Amino acid sequence: MWSNSKFALCLLGIIIFFQSCEKENLKEKPSDNQVFSIELDSVVVSDSLLLSVLKEEDAYRKMTKAGRIVDISGMDVVKENPKKVYAHYMPWFQSLDYDGYWGQHWTMANKNPNIVDADGKREIASYYYPIIGPYSSNDPDLQEYHFLMMKLSGIDGVIFDWYGSKDLYDYDLIKQSTESFMARLDDLGMEFSIMYEDRVAVDTYNSGLASSVVDAAQMDFQYIKDSYLSRPNFLNHNGKELLFVFGPNTITNTADWDSIFSVFPVNEEPYFLTLWAAQNMVGSSASGEFLWVAQDHLLAHDYYYGEYLDNNLVTVGSSYPGFDSFYEDGGWGLQHDWGIPHNNGNVFVETLNYTHHEAADFVQLVTWNDFGEGTMLEPTEEYGFLNLQLLQQYTGVTYVPEDLQIVLDLYKARKEFTGNYEVQYYLDRSYRKIKKSKMNRARLILMAVNRFYGS
Question: How many domains does the chain have?
């Protein structure tokens, strides 16, 4: 059961502060018996029923081949909370089984994922372990799993962490990975935006790939304009596309940003949001600021919202589960001498509740999968579905953690039956049922597959 008294204590009075936002405010959190995973196959279902399910899906295949059925892209999710929610997403992982090597965000300087402990966990550069194990951002199965998890949690889209358009370091790999998600975004009806890391412009210039830092950034923004902003599902706010910069950290002259933004036609410039307390470096090109994880935690939220309530700027609520940097232990040096404990979901609840200000136009979840900094919301061995369960309550979707387990089971089946095209057809059908919110049918298909094709 869920405990209102425990929840009230963990919020430290925040509910009282935001009592006028009753519709969106989280009322309770899971008890200490938090949801890790759910064994769906524990329900007894007869062989005859499961066989009939497979036969019905086979009949659908024949109808499809006859051209009588057309699948329509998109996935409609009903949410009680109208506030838009976007997940900051890291498309920078590579895995041995998919890419042929382990990428640096799993290894950092001193970790070897080929080392497996007695519990079957690989050695990775994080204090937390993804419930599916380390993965590749380019893997279509991973993309299906991540984005279905998001949809069932009420997430409307993603903000990709993006490192420019040039083939330098792993920047081009990140760009390619970002673009590999586009078909899945389209199929599930999700929006996306770009978070530009302006320090890459300095790297591009120093590598001789641009005549100046400004020229490097201009080329990146031209690429963004040509390749992303024209897509119909690019994040749009009040009729304008919306971009982000993580900083700026290296381009801090307003005249330089004026030159960079000259790639956009007059009166067609997108909204451009900087890190909080940084818009003055961008000047007239800036449209607002977004909050990030800060050492002073909730005091930063107080300052941010207090500063912005009376200003006509785009304001982004920022919510995160905690902060636990692995950089020093991973051999990349001490980059943070502070942390914010996850505190069994309470930090996520606290920061979600700060987004109820009317001035918060939408929410950025920080982050979906930054394992190196310990801000990930995707299911982990340590927290299971806890954070997504809290998010489901916040967004007011009709889905429950048992539905998240169906998506996890779909991912596991994708991997178990790789190369088995007959089974993959049934898994495709399970995916389509999830898209249509027919969760019980999706579950039965998975149960049938495991019953008759599993080892």
Answer: 2
